[in-house]
Amino acid sequence: MATSCDMLPEDVVYHILLWLPVVSLLRFKSVCKAWCSLIESFDFITQHLHLSKSRDNNKVIAWAPEMLDFQGGPLFTFRFLLFSGNNFQMSESLDLPHRFDNPLERRGNLVSCNGVICLVHRYDDSTIKDDVSLWNPATKQFRILPKSTVPIPEWSGLVNFHYGFGFDKITNDYKVVRIIHDDVLLDDGEQQSRVRVEVYSLNMDSWRVLDVVLPIDIHIVSDPRTPFRDGIYCWSGWDSFMENGLEVTRNSILSFDFAKEVFGTMPVPDVYSYVRCDLKLALLRENIACFEWVFNPPKTDNWHCKIWVLNEYGVKESWTKLYTVVLESLAFPRFLSMNGMIVWMKNDELTQSLSFRVCNTITHEIMNLTYEVFSSHALFANYKESLVSINSACCAAARVRDCCG
């Protein structure tokens, strides 16, 4: 008797399954071995991801330090909220499938790439190294990455850590890049920057030091909403140099190519090149964008945000100002979504409370986010569900050896 797996041609089954959401595909893996093998195959996962990207089903994932679950003892786990990208309605609440033994700082990083979330967990205890984890909310896979075997430099002063996460399409590898940076005051009074770069490879499941020199002596702005696009990760920042005996400060964008493992720079719009301002990066409809938060203007009711988009990657002349979004007084922009929804935090001086508002940059419609009150440290990231596995190639090889043995 023919089974349900044999009733349709393989290519028809393949294309039907491609259109299904991840939650259905995970359930259908138990239908038969053939379907399980197909759904877990690299080609199917890649095609499913590509098809998902072509559809306008972007979502936003958010986290705030208040969203803790203390049940079961003094352990810490985290709850995330998932919003639809078009109307920003909350669609799901997600718990991180891990509990931490030590309290974490309110600051952190939340970066998304191909449905995988990279989280940086900074501890209140400065003697504990950061934990970096990867999490696929759709498949429920979670793993804390191994600690780097290279000791943190014993540099004087404050040492800053800046992270990026992305996909190397040449080797089909997910990588985390970490920039370790500090400024040291020399005996002669001069200030010198020191930088070390490390890269984690999911395929190898290990960290290594990258022998590179940053293209400019850049000071990275600690902004967890920096974007990843087409194999390139970008941080906003600024660098300073001497010109005619004077120190000049210039805004710039530092980029990292995950395939070539090299750093580069991109200019910001001319109007911001030599102006100290609060400039943040975002992804807007797949293009690099930046937005300037104008606060404390001459008129207190004229707080606003200017949004620019880079129409052609790396071409300075292609920067175009798209929108000027009028904000409320004491409004602090936190995030610009892929679909053009800007999120800001409203500080109510009268009630001493915080709330979050969302504005559609095209229609200018404003809505309140109806969920638990977030803190000023809330993090947001664009998100699209996928079947991408965060099991490393080393782990996969070990499983094969165990099965064969």
TrEMBL record:
SMART domains named among the record's database cross-references: FBOX
Residue ranges occupied by any F-box domain in the UniProt entry: 2-49
InterPro entries, alphabetized: F-box-assoc_dom_typ1 (IPR006527), F-box-assoc_interact_dom (IPR017451), F-box-like_dom_sf (IPR036047), F-box_dom (IPR001810), Kelch-typ_b-propeller (IPR015915), SCF_F-box_component (IPR050796)
Any one Pfam family match given in the protein's UniProt record, by short name: F-box
Alphabetical list of CDD domains matching this protein: F-box_AtFBW1-like (cd22157)
Highest taxon listed in the record's lineage: Eukaryota
Protein name: F-box protein cpr1
Source organism of the structure: Thalictrum thalictroides (Rue-anemone)
